[in-house]
Write a structure and sequence with these properties.
DNA-binding region (chains A, B): 26-45
Largest sheet of chain A: none
CATH topology of the largest domain in chain A: Tetracycline Repressor, domain 2
Shape of chain A: elongated
Largest interface: A-B, 51 and 51 residues
Structural class of chain A: mainly alpha
Number of helices of chain A: 10
CATH superfamily of the largest domain in chain A: Tetracycline Repressor, domain 2
Distance between the termini of chain A: 64 Å
CATH class of the largest domain in chain A: Mainly Alpha
Domain HTH tetR-type (chains A, B): 3-63
Radius of gyration of chain A: 20 Å
Organism (chains A, B): Collibacillus ludicampi
Order of helices and strands of chain A: HHHHHHHHHH
Oligomer: homodimer
Protein name (chains A, B): TetR family transcriptional regulator
GO molecular function (chains A, B): DNA-binding transcription factor activity; transcription cis-regulatory region binding
Number of domains of chain A: 2
Number of strands of chain A: 0
């Protein structure tokens, strides 16, 4: 079995699942896209579900791995949150189709796949929550519901898959700076002395 | 034609599109759900696409209408942004299935429906951007890319459809307060005098 051919099939599936949706894409569509007979395609994959699972698994595992590295870095928590936002946005912008399949299509997975992806997604939220918690413990961030704050930040960053234009005027870096600035300091001017940490 | 029966069909379609996805739901599934023969269902609707369009149109139009009312209110822009966040989150939390159909399934619409929904969605983003722009003009909000800031805030609020639990511990009001606090003032403590508006 050729690893290259398998990768070509996975890339075709990403394109088709993003464009038409998982349910509207047939195994025949995928076979046509890579120039194979449907019977030959089954030498490489056992089912359409297997492809969706591999795509979703690769995508969410990559997000987790990158964020784990950031958490282990020796920088302050402002910087850590900035890097988390920048890395997530850079990955979404560079992998729009794959991220769309993860975020829009993975709900179609059957068990046990659905639970595996859900656990990896929960793990990703846990990592974001940990950055906020550690920032609170370090006296850099304000106290409050860290999981809810992580969901706000992660939601904003995930939503990029809906509006980011690969050929648009804004780079992932420019978007990251504006987003991180909002999450860290908000859109409003602050009242003098209104938000100083207790000493 | 009974308006009640039509409404019952629309509610069944919302449930099925949310649970199985639009493509995986057949007209037969919808007929079964409301206890009609498939032929009789076609007395009420012309197609599955028509149902998806009506659901998406009703949902996004409601978001627009509510935000237009908030924009016209005589309050400051902090308060306006808070109310926009609170209203959006309250509507998503109270209409999780319908919002999921709008945000996850409407990409399956064909033309001219796709363009109509896209224009109403663009209009909604314009309204959020306007709140930020007017807050900047009033000296309440910091200058910057207002559309990008609106996309961050709206993305975070939209993402609720993915994680909000109707029977969970957090009310829409509690979530709104945490979210609006992040968008207005950020998660970090601010350096004394670091973010005072220029006078």
């Amino acid at each position: 079995m050729s690893a290259n051919k398998y990768e070509e099939i996975a890339q075709a599936a990403i394109r088709l699942f993003q464009q038409k949706g998982y349910h509207a894409t047939s195994v025949q569509d995928i076979a046509d896209e890579v120039g194979l007979q449907k019977g030959s395609l089954y030498h490489y994959i056992s089912s359409k579900e297997e492809l969706l699972m591999k795509i979703a698994h690769q995508s969410i595992s990559g997000f987790n791995r990158r964020l784990e590295k950031i958490i282990d870095m020796e920088v302050n928590h402002r910087e850590k949150l900035f890097m988390a936002v920048q890395t997530h946005i850079t990955v979404v912008a560079a992998n729009m189709q794959m991220t769309t399949v993860l975020l829009r299509e993975a709900f179609s997975l059957a068990e046990p796949h659905a639970t595996i992806i859900q656990e990896l997604t929960d793990r990703y939220l846990d990592l974001w929550t940990r950055i906020i918690d550690e920032g609170i413990a370090a006296g850099e961030f304000k106290p409050g519901n860290s999981r809810l704050k992580a969901l706000a930040i992660l939601g904003a960053c995930n939503w990029l898959y809906r509006w980011y234009e690969t050929d648009g005027p804004l780079s992932a870096d420019e978007i990251s700076k504006v987003f991180a600035d909002i999450f860290l300091d908000g859109v409003a001017y602050h009242k003098p002395g209104g938000s100083i940490p207790p000493s």
